[in-house]
Specification:
Elements lengths: L1 H12 L9 H5 L3 H15 L12 H14 L8 H13 L2 H13 L1 H14 L6 H4 L2 H30 L3 H30 L4 H55 L2 H42 L5 H29 L6 H47 L6 H60 L4 H132 L3 H5 L2 H76 L1
Helix pairs in contact: 1-6, 3-6, 4-5
Subcellular location: Cytoplasm, Cytoskeleton, Cilium basal body
InterPro entries: IFT81 (IPR029600), IFT81_CH (IPR041146), IFT81_N_sf (IPR043016)
GO molecular function: tubulin binding
């Protein structure tokens, strides 16, 4: 509760309320002040509710606040009894009721502002059904609903535009960029026109180019139409395939079924539908109508307090007790304990309840079956969209399984072949290893022979020399090409450097002169800048001192002028008061009675006497009214009873006249038939 009050006080001290409350001052607010505070918060959300509650009745205030809270979808905590207490607390300004409402409103002010704004246009005006039978009223109501829907769509578009992040600055930049592009394109077109005008037969060439462009656009549109027709043809083929599958399934179902089973199924459906139509649905409609009638009755009644609810509960308990006593008396009187009909009635009631339960289960199963069928259709449609192929039926699935089995055997056969190849690879790998070992043994024997002959390493050295000579020849060729390229590149670079030096020589001379002049000007600029800064600093100090002096003099002048005006006004006021006092004294002392009556003292004395006489008359009149109140009320009650009695007699008289007129018409009709 403390956190809630702290939050409320913080929000009320901020914009736009600026109440400057603390916890103690907020907690010490009276009920009327709390209600005014709640009305101010509601007025911030909806400006129509920014009113002074002292200018309206408490019932009107509570009704207005309850209507707005209902529109804002505020849910007070608790049960029905708590709701009545909530209404009562809202009327009296109770703190336990007002504080949660303020906390809820201040938590989501922006959201509630939007909801209140939308409620002005989206809360539907309920028109009674008997008024809607008039064509004009029905047309206006239809236009009203269409305008409401149009407002919903416009508001959604507005919110989407706000969320999209497009700003007016970005749109203006885009527009300006487009206009620049448009100007550039226009200039380019003008240049192209001027360039084309010099060509012979340019009009004919332009016409041919225009026709070419039109034909290309037509080709693109035809290609697009072709693509659309292809897609439509593909979807039509898919629908045809689905229809053929459904036809096959229906034919299969019809082929397997017999007339007896179909008739039995139809009889069961007819029995179930007739049970729903004759027993279940009328009973449910009657219960719904009864509940609606009672709810309308409850809504039409005024707000009930806790005392009214307790009294109604007491009456309900008494009526239930009386009903139980009457049922017991009836059972004791008409149904003796040894009667066998009670057992049959119980069995019949049990069977009827079981029947109702099974009917409900059957209806739920049918609804579930229909929902599952819709889901199957939806999933099949999604599968068609994703894969572009039909969902397999039972026969197609069997064919698919047989194909899968044949592929499985083919896979096993290929797997055996792979195993054989793997084994052969192992054999070849072992052969390679043996050959490598033999090669190593031969190399060792060769080395041993070379050692015996005194030329060890001869074969290895020969191989290395051959390899190195081959690599060297390749490197020599690459080096020769690289040196040729580098020499050519150096020649080109030297020539380019010489050309650039020749072209830059005069520019370098001019640049040296410009650098020298730039240094001189820079020195002169620095000197002038130092002089300017010193002069500006002195003038700035003088200006600030003069501004302070002028400001002080202006303030002194304004103060003196205000003092002069105040003294002058006080002087005029005192002069007027002195003049009025002299005139009053003159009129009071004057011997003329007419002048004395004009005195203020005499006027107030006369008014006091008149008011005292009026008070005496009103007290006497109040006394007379109090004495005659009881007899008058009794007499008024008698006149009301007399009026009701005369009204009842009038209605009876009119009924008798109508019955007599109807009887006379019937008698005249009988006489006419007799005459005929």
């Amino acid at each position: 509760m403390g956190d809630q009050m702290q939050f409320i006080v913080e929000k009320l001290n901020q914009e736009p309320f600026r109440k400057n409350y603390n916890l103690i001052s907020f907690d010490s607010l009276e009920s009327l002040q709390l209600l005014q505070l709640l009305s101010d918060v509601l007025g911030e959300i909806d400006p129509k509710h920014a009113v002074d509650i002292r200018e309206e009745l408490p019932e009107q205030t509570a009704k207005r606040m309850l209507n707005l809270l209902g529109i804002l979808k505020y849910k007070p905590p608790g049960t029905v009894s708590d709701l009545s207490a909530f209404r009562q607390g809202l009327v009296t300004g109770s703190k336990p009721v007002i504080h949660p409402v303020l906390h809820w409103l201040l938590q989501r002010t922006n959201e509630l502002k939007k909801r209140a704004y939308l409620a002005r246009f989206l809360v539907k005006l309920e028109v009674p059904a008997e008024f809607l039978q008039d064509d004009t009223v029905a047309d206006f109501n239809k236009q009203y609903e269409e305008l409401m829907e149009a407002f919903k769509n416009l508001h959604k578009e507005h919110e989407q535009l706000k969320i999209s992040g497009l700003s007016t600055a970005e749109i203006r930049r885009d527009i300006s960029a487009m206009e620049e592009e448009k100007d550039q394109l226009a200039k380019r077109v003008e240049r192209l026109k001027k360039r084309v005008e010099t060509v012979q037969n340019h009009q004919r060439m332009l016409e041919i180019a225009r026709q070419l462009r039109l034909e290309k656009e037509r080709e693109e549109s035809l290609a697009q139409q072709k693509q659309e027709q292809k897609s439509q043809l593909f979807h039509a083929e898919q629908r045809l395939q689905r229809a053929q599958v459904q036809l096959k399934e229906m034919q299969h179902v019809v082929a397997d079924s017999k007339p007896e089973s179909l008739m039995k199924k139809l009889e069961e459906e007819i029995n179930f539908t007739s049970y729903l139509l004759t027993e279940k649905i009328p009973r449910e409609m009657e219960s719904k109508k009864t509940s609606v009638y009672f709810l309308q009755k409850v809504v039409a009644e005024p707000a009930m307090t806790q005392a009214d609810l307790t009294a109604l509960e007491r009456e309900i308990n008494e009526v239930n007790a009386q009903m139980n006593q009457l049922i017991e008396k009836r059972m004791m009187k008409y149904e003796p304990t040894d009667s066998k009909f009670s057992m049959y009635r119980q069995q019949a009631s049990i069977i009827s309840r079981k029947k109702e339960a099974k009917a409900e289960e059957l209806q739920a199963a049918k609804e579930e079956l229909s929902s599952l069928e819709r889901q199957v259709e939806q999933k099949s449609g999604q599968a068609h969209e994703l894969e572009g192929s039909e969902v397999l039926t039972e026969d197609e699935f069997k064919q698919y399984v047989s194909k899968l089995r044949s592929k499985n055997t083919f896979y096993k056969r290929k797997r055996l072949e792979i195993a054989e190849i793997t084994a052969e690879y192992g054999i070849l790998q072992r052969t390679e290893e043996l050959l490598r070992q033999r090669h190593e043994a031969i190399q060792q024997q060769l080395q041993a022979i070379e050692e015996k002959k005194g030329i060890s390493g001869y074969s290895y050295t020969q191989e290395e020399l051959e390899r190195v000579s081959a690599v060297k020849s390749e490197m020599d060729e690459v080096k020769g090409q690289t040196l040729d390229n580098m020499s050519e590149m150096v020649k080109k670079l030297n020539a380019m450097v010489a050309e650039k030096k020749a072209s830059l020589a005069p520019i370098i001379k001019e640049l040296r002169q410009l650098r020298q002049s730039c240094q001189e000007l820079t020195q002169e600029c620095d000197e002038k800048k130092i002089q300017y800064d010193s002069c500006a600093a002195g003038l700035e100090t003088n200006r600030s001192a003069l501004e302070q002096e002028v400001k002080g003099l202006l303030e002194e002048c304004a103060q003196e002028e205000s003092n002069y005006r105040y003294i002058n006004c006080m002087k005029r006021t005192l002069e007027i008061q002195l003049q009025r006092a002299k005139e009053e004294m003159k009129a009071y002392v004057s011997p003329d009675p007419q002048e004395r009556r004009k005195a203020i003292r005499e006027q107030y004395t006369r008014i006091i006497l008149e008011q005292e006489n009026l008070g005496k008359k009103l007290r006497e009149k109040q006394k007379v009214v109090r004495e005659s109140h009881g007899p008058n009320m009794k007499q008024m009650k008698m006149w009301q009873d007399f009026e009701q009695l005369m009204q009842c007699k009038r209605e009876c008289f009119l009924k008798q006249q109508n019955q007599a007129a109807i009887g006379q018409v019937i008698q005249e009709g009988g006489k006419d038939r007799l005459v005929l």
